[in-house]
Design goal:
The complex is a heterodimer of chains A (about 220) and B (about 800). With about 220 residues, chain A is α/β, with parallel strands linked by helices. Helix content of chain A is about 35%, strand content about 30%. Chain A has one domain: 3-Layer(aba) Sandwich (Rossmann fold). Chain A is built from seven helices and ten strands. In chain A, the strands form two sheets. Chain A has a six-stranded mixed beta sheet with strand order 6-7-8-3-9-10, sandwiched between helices. A four-stranded antiparallel beta sheet of chain A has the order 2-1-4-5, covered by helices on one side. Chain A is globular. Chain B has three domains: about 1-45 and about 290-465 and about 685-810, no CATH class; about 65-235, no CATH class; about 475-675, no CATH class. In chain B, α15 packs across α24 (about 775-800) and α23 (about 730-765) packs antiparallel against α24. In chain B, about 40% of the residues are buried. Chain B has 25 helices and 24 strands. With about 800 residues, chain B is an alpha+beta fold. The chains are: A alpha/beta (about 220), B alpha+beta (about 800). At the A-B interface, α2 and α3 of A face α22 and α25 of B.
Chain lengths: ~220, ~800
């Protein structure tokens, strides 16, 4: 599903040049659950941004479902992104002014789904994530675990082929964290490809494979049992 | 402590350069407008107050209806003043002014100069008005005929010195009356309703004195301390019965004032306070063009609104920014800063900004003063700003604004619980504030009202310029003072007619624009006048070329002609007169007037034609009754000319003039200019309204710009999330714009009825006016929306273009 070859990303400021990704190559097959690990500043987030089509690489190739997307412009990337990729963040990134329902509904609005249909889809997802009873609450009124469940609901509402998770349990206690990991595993089992950046060896164990990074390069790949 | 506060305030200003700049610029512009308009209003309100007895001086106004439209006069009859003083002990003194001659030619060396600021006054003039003498005794200066009092400027102009007592000046009165200078006075202040340079003795006025029925003199009464002018007003009823009625009976059949009134007529006199004349009087025979209290109100309101808009910006930006400073407050509190100290810090900050703005505002006001003087038609000097009251205002204003703008954020912020703030739980509430929305609505409502006002003022002015006025005001060159040519008048006409480009010539003594010569008389439908068949009418002397030259049209009958010897007793009436008379076809009918020399005898005139109505006064007035008679109004001469090479043409005319009247000044004007001068006050109001509308909108936009950038900044993260979730740039821009648009639309809902009401009132000043069409409001609302969108677009597009990676990286 994803194949990157010789991917490079360099950040320049007036004085320093930081190599975030250094000729990075790997492949993720459809239906895989891959964890990306590495110390702070190793390029994990940059990788996730590029994989999420939020940012473009300086060099190298990025095949998404067999299509070269490395040179896509903003509009094409956005189009591909909103139909195919869901995001889960460490700090949830729910919009404070919107209710749980409205937060989850958002991606459907942007992909142009009709109102009546949206209601059905959102309710269905909220039900699955077991937060239906909180549909009219605002994010601040929820616990961290509940907020992340809303975030996951929002990530999957469009039925994306790929979910990118950036330390999804980073702000959660262990029981809430486990719950969220279970959610991701369930999604994976239903066929969604998941790439997750994490610091936690515990969370990494939920994945099929761990890619370890250092200074913008992969240093090791473990296949999890 | 205070020094530390200022240091911190300064650093905060520098740290938020962008917001500080918007804040200071907006407030400074607002304050500058406020300063200028305050100067204007103060000046307008100060008229005639230089007179020490101003509070006791009144002018007698006359309101007359006789068969036609109401005449509101600033003048009254010549015996009025003396009679009132004789009969009523409340009258301490009276003084009359006679200015009907308008201007005089005064000889300097061998040449006559046309002087406009001249008048004849009673010897009591200086006992009523405060015009200090430089030399001579003003109490006795005008006691005798052939005396004149001159101002310092006039003395310097004609003699180069103020030591001129006993010297004589020659005028064109009766072909060269000499006047002896008996006193020199200080120049009359600009804020006076009269501006004489020469005050001549009343004894030299060539007038049939003792006539209660002719109204030609401005009469001022100085009432004794404690006299109630409202009570005194009632005395005019017995005055009219005792003096006016007996004279009226001589030439018309009227038995009592009651009968006169019942026929729909009116003859009333009222006292008008001296200090009201400049702003509240727009009557026939005013000495100078007065101001208008309406404009004082409107401009004061505009000044206040602009200041409010600027203050609102200031408050809005301060409170909006407060959210950003919540963390600072939290940390300070954790470190032990007291609430008191925080409040003081915030107040110091806002007051510093207000003071900086004031300094800038004074600079802007000084720079803009010449421009403002030009559009408002004033001659205000910057020294007006140095009066104590004004300086006090300038000091108090920024402190008040600073405190007002600072109080809300300072109390709001200083009340934060440090834990909450540091946890970031405050931000959400500060983002959307009802107060801020209300303030933005207020700003835009004001802007919309100003836009509507400006559009309607300009439409009305445009209407006046282009309305079918019944004559052609273009290409008419008027040569003034042609009376000075004497017997050479015809020769002059003949010579000028030979100049290429001159098409025709006519007498121009009576002109269809305000402030031209006027002559009215009473007429009747039957030979014997009574209070039902009599009416007042303008009588203009013209020649047979006048009607075609002015482009006027005949509705019925014919123009005057040299072929009809009987035309000396013929009249051409206008359509208003025709409708007063009520004949289906008035041509061939007669009208009557009484003989000046023998009021019991009547003179008859034959109506030979009806001229289509034309506006001969400002469009604020209905077209009154008017008739033309054949005659030679020789003091001005009208030429219809070709507008090409106008400069050359005029200089050729001047050459002819100099040949025939070498010692008299050559003076000319164009009819269309005189026409436009009638609406000078409205044009100025239009320009002032336009200038300040633009400024108000700029200031409001400045605030909106700041607010939009603040909102975008506040919502950076939300925008990032939305983009990640697939929002396009359009989605984001429209999301951010929608909130503001909603506010602008709500403003329109408030502004439209209010602006309709205000402009409806203004238009009521005009007898001939435009309708207020719905599209004006639509246009104003659309303009406001477009302006608001353009203003915020820079910020919203910038926010929408930001790569979400940047806004979400902060984790």
């Amino acid at each position: 599903m994803i194949k990157i070859t010789g991917l490079e990303k360099i950040y320049r400021t007036e004085e320093v040049e930081t190599v975030a990704l250094n000729k990075l190559s790997f492949e993720v097959k459809e239906g895989e659950f891959v964890a990306v690990m590495g110390p702070s500043g190793c390029g994990k987030s940059t990788l996730l941004n590029i994989l999420g089509l939020l940012d473009d690489p300086d060099a190298g190739s990025f095949l998404f479902n067999g299509i070269e997307v490395a040179k896509f412009n903003e509009r094409k990337r956005a189009d591909l992104r909103k139909h195919n990729i869901g995001f889960v963040f460490q700090s949830f990134n729910l919009i404070d002014e919107l209710t749980v329902f409205e937060n989850v509904e958002l991606p459907l609005i942007y992909t142009g789904v009709k109102t009546s249909e949206r209601k059905k889809i959102v309710e269905n997802v909220l039900d699955k994530m077991q937060i239906m009873h909180r549909r009219n609450h605002y994010p601040q009124q929820l616990s961290g675990g509940q907020q992340q469940r809303v975030a996951v609901a929002r990530a999957v509402v469009n039925n994306p082929k790929l979910i990118l998770a950036d330390e999804p349990t980073g702000n959660l206690d262990s029981s809430n964290g486990n719950e969220v990991m279970q959610l991701l595993t369930d999604l994976n089992e239903q066929g969604t490809t998941i790439i997750m950046v994490t610091h936690s060896e515990h969370d990494a164990r939920y994945s099929h494979r761990v890619i370890r990074m250092l200074d913008g390069q992969t240093v090791m790949e473990n296949i999890m049992a | 402590m205070l020094r530390n506060d200022f240091k911190l305030a300064w650093r905060n200003l520098l740290k938020n350069r962008f917001f500080s700049l918007i804040n200071i610029l907006g407030l400074a512009t607002g304050l500058a407008c406020f300063i200028l308009i305050t100067l204007y209003v103060t000046d307008e309100l100060s008229y005639d107050r230089y007179n020490e007895k101003a509070s006791r001086i009144y002018r007698v106004n006359s309101d007359i209806i006789f068969g036609t439209t109401e005449l509101k006069l600033a003048v009254s009859s010549d015996p009025m003043g003396a009679t009132l003083k004789k009969d009523y002990p409340q009258v301490e003194e009276f003084a009359r002014l006679y200015t009907s001659s308008g201007s005089k030619l005064i000889k300097k060396g061998n040449v006559f100069i046309n002087e406009g600021n001249v008048g004849h006054a009673d010897s009591t003039f200086f006992r009523v008005f405060t015009v200090p003498a430089i030399s001579g005794n003003t109490n006795t200066a005008l006691n005798e005929p052939n005396t004149v009092v001159v101002t310092k400027s006039a003395a310097l102009k004609y003699f180069g010195t103020t030591d001129v007592i006993g010297k004589t000046i020659e005028t064109n009165d009766n072909n060269g009356t000499l006047y002896k200078i008996t006193a020199v006075v200080k120049d009359i202040p600009t804020n006076s309703h009269f501006h004489f340079d020469f005050i001549f003795s009343m004894d030299n006025v060539d007038y049939n004195f003792g006539n209660y029925l002719s109204h030609n003199f401005q009469t001022y009464l100085l009432l004794k301390e404690g006299t109630d002018p409202k009570e005194f007003d009632k005395k005019f009823i017995e005055f009219t019965d005792r003096y006016v009625l007996p004279q009226a009976k001589q030439f018309m059949q009227v038995n009592s004032m009651e009968e006169f009134r019942q026929a729909g007529n009116k003859l009333e006199y009222h006292l008008m306070p001296l200090t009201d004349i400049h702003l509240r009087s727009d009557r026939v025979a005013e000495i100078s063009v007065n101001g208008n209290i309406q404009y004082v109100y409107i401009f004061s309101a505009v000044a206040l609104f602009i200041l409010l808009i600027a203050c609102i910006n200031f408050m809005n930006l301060s409170t909006a920014r407060s959210a950003n400073r919540a963390k600072e407050v939290g940390i300070r509190k954790v470190l032990g800063t007291e609430r008191k100290t925080l409040i003081r810090q915030f107040l110091t900050e806002s007051t510093t900004v207000a003071l900086l703005s004031l300094l800038l505002a004074i600079g802007i006001a000084l720079l803009a003063l010449p421009y403002f003087n030009r559009i408002s038609g004033k001659e205000m000097s910057w020294t007006l700003m140095t009066t104590t009251g004004f300086l006090l205002l300038l000091v108090i204003l920024p402190v008040v604004i600073g405190l007002l703008a600072g109080i809300y954020p300072s109390f709001y912020l200083s009340a934060f619980k440090p834990i909450m703030v540091l946890k970031g739980k405050i931000n959400a509430g500060a983002k959307r504030s009802t107060l801020r929305s209300v303030l933005v609505i207020f700003q835009f409502a004001t802007s919309i009202i100003l836009i509507v006002g400006t559009i309607i003022v300009y439409r009305q002015l445009n209407y006046i310029q282009n309305k079918k006025i019944g004559f052609n005001k273009e290409q008419v060159l008027l040569i003034e003072g042609t009376g000075a040519l004497g017997n050479n008048n015809q020769a002059f006409r003949n010579e000028v007619m030979r100049i290429a480009g001159v098409k025709s010539v006519a007498t121009g003594g009576f002109l269809p624009v305000s402030n031209s010569s006027r002559n009215d008389n009473t007429f009747s439908k039957e030979a014997v006048m009574d209070s039902k068949n009599g009416f007042n009418m303008q009588v203009w002397r013209i020649d047979e070329n006048y009607i075609p030259l002015m482009g006027m049209e005949m509705a019925m009958g014919r123009n005057f002609s040299k072929e009809f010897k009987t035309d000396s007793s013929a009249v051409i009436i206008n359509e208003t007169t025709a409708s007063i008379l009520g004949y289906d076809n008035p041509v061939g009918k007669k009208i009557y007037t009484s003989d000046v020399n023998d009021p019991a005898q009547s003179i008859e005139y034959n109506i030979v034609g009806v001229v289509k109505n034309f506006n001969f006064e400002s469009m604020k007035q209905q077209i009154g009754a008017l008739c033309f008679r054949l005659g030679d109004a020789y003091w001005e001469t009208a030429f219809k000319v070709d507008p090409a090479n106008m400069k050359q043409l005029v200089s050729q005319v001047e050459k002819e003039w100099t040949k025939l009247a070498p010692s008299y000044p050559f003076s000319y004007k164009f009819l269309d200019e005189s026409f436009n001068n009638m609406y000078r006050a409205e044009q100025r109001a239009g320009q002032v309204a336009l200038s300040f509308s633009v400024l108000a909108i700029v200031i409001a936009c400045l605030g909106l710009f700041g607010l939009a950038s603040f909102m975008a900044e506040q919502r950076t993260k939300e925008i990032g999330v939305r983009k990640v979730l697939g929002a396009s740039m359009n989605n984001i821009v429209s999301m951010l714009s929608r909130d503001f648009l909603r506010l602008v639309l709500v403003s329109a809902v408030f502004a439209i009825p209010l602006s309709w009401f205000i402009m409806h009132r203004w238009l009521e000043n005009f007898a001939y006016r435009v309708n207020i069409s719905w599209w004006v409001f639509l246009l104003a609302a659309i303009l406001a929306v477009v302006i608001a969108l353009l203003t915020i677009s820079f910020q919203t597009v910038k926010a929408a273009l930001t790569n979400p990676v940047d806004s979400l990286r902060s984790e």
